[in-house]
Specification:
Blueprint lengths: L1 H6 L4 H6 L4 H19 L12 H24 L4 H29 L8 H9 L16 H20 L6 H19 L6 H24 L1 H7 L5 H16 L1 H7 L7 H17 L3 H6 L2 H8 L1 H15 L7 H39 L17
């Protein structure tokens, strides 16, 4: 019995019955901490290549919003764009704008509002064109929000538009997603600069996450990935991803120093890791443990607050492991306060707003618990 359970893959019915994937929350914690350590750990953590962990966030986000939308469609017969955007607004914007305002206040009091170039960047930050800013500002990590917010405007709308297809709806969506990935990969060699390449390649990671969500939702697609959900296979996939993480730099060098070509490879590896993490395995048990989920629940605020936290730790510590660890701790402290007094109240208000919409006759748009999508 023990041997059989060790090799038993996850059933599609079990996957569809899961309303929350705690292992993915723990995975977000690792991604956030990897980014912080990359920024402030110095040469000691150079091999970690934590910068690319942002792509793991993108894959997670694409997978979870797609999974939520498809389950909503099965449950209610439709996908509510209004419900989706209400949830996104009250999940993302309060912390984002609060930290932007606090950052502007801090540099203004320091007399460096214009010298820091935050004044130049604010119009882009207010309209979520953050990734266009190609100069240093005191709010640098917000660039990923610019990528995600524009993606959120398009992908859910595409799901709604294709929901009217009478047959082969899943295939149509998969073809659209695969077409986007192929287009992004096709334009990379034509990009006039590394910045322009970066403006497009991140959408590849998001769409790969979406394609995984589409595949796992459909019985035939799930069957393709099901062998990876056995506990033994999940452990092997996780070990393989660790190897991939440490191979990012040599892989980029083998591709002529073009880091953007590494991103799709890393995103594909991240998608396989997600499959392993949703399975009942030692990998999931580790990532679903309390320390990981505690940090993962606060990873969005931690990620955005890291620059402010580094401003505190930088007064005492030089760049290195000590600074990276201290910055992570201070950022987590900030994130705890933001979650308690900003994130959770805002999410609760969004739920009440959706309840009012329901009272007016709109059908339930999604799981009120935010289901598996405790995502950025």
């Amino acid at each position: 019995m023990i041997v059989r359970s060790w090799w038993r893959p996850l059933d599609h019915a079990e996957f569809r019955a899961s309303s929350w994937f705690p292992g993915l929350t723990g995975l977000r914690a690792l991604a956030a901490l990897a980014v912080v350590f990359f920024h402030y750990g110095g040469p000691v953590v150079d091999r970690l290549q934590g910068w690319i962990a942002v792509q793991l966030f993108f894959v997670l986000s694409g997978f979870l919003i797609t999974t939520l939308a498809l389950r909503e469609e099965d449950r209610t017969g439709r996908i509510s764009l209004r419900g989706f955007y209400v949830r996104r607004v009250f999940r993302i914007l309060p912390v984002y704008f609060l930290l932007l305002g606090l950052t502007a206040l801090a540099v203004t009091l320091a007399g460096t509002y214009h010298a820091s170039r935050l004044a130049d960047a604010v119009p882009f930050y207010l309209t979520f064109f953050n990734e266009v800013v190609d100069y240093n500002t005191p709010y640098p990590t917000s660039w990923s929000l610019g990528v995600e917010e524009k993606f959120y405007l398009v992908w859910p709308a595409l799901l709604v538009l294709t929901s009217f297809a009478r047959s082969r709806k899943s295939l149509l969506r998969a073809v659209i997603g695969a077409g986007v990935v192929c287009f992004v990969l096709g334009v990379l060699p034509l990009a006039p600069s590394a910045q322009w390449a970066s403006l497009s390649v991140h959408y590849c990671s998001l769409v790969i996450g979406c394609l995984l969500g589409l595949a796992l939702h459909h019985p035939r697609g799930f069957a393709v990935f099901r062998p990876l959900t056995s506990p033994a296979a999940a452990v092997l996939v996780a070990l393989g991803f660790v190897v991939l993480q440490f191979s990012v730099k040599p892989l980029g060098q083998s591709l002529g120093g073009h880091w953007q070509y590494v991103v799709p490879i890393y995103a594909a590896g991240s998608a396989l890791l997600l499959v392993a993490v949703i399975a009942q395995s030692p990998v999931r048990r580790l990532l679903a443990s309390r320390p990981f989920t505690f940090v993962g629940d606060r990873s969005y605020a931690l990620y955005l607050a890291q620059t402010g936290a580094a401003g505190v730790t930088g007064l005492l510590l030089p760049t290195g492991l000590a600074k990276a660890a201290a910055t992570s701790a201070v950022a987590l402290l900030f994130a705890c306060g933001l979650r308690r007094w900003v994130e959770l109240p805002a999410i609760a208000y969004g739920r009440r707003l959706l309840a009012k919409l329901l009272a007016k006759g709109e059908r339930a748009p999604a799981d009120a618990r935010q289901g598996p999508a405790r995502v950025r």
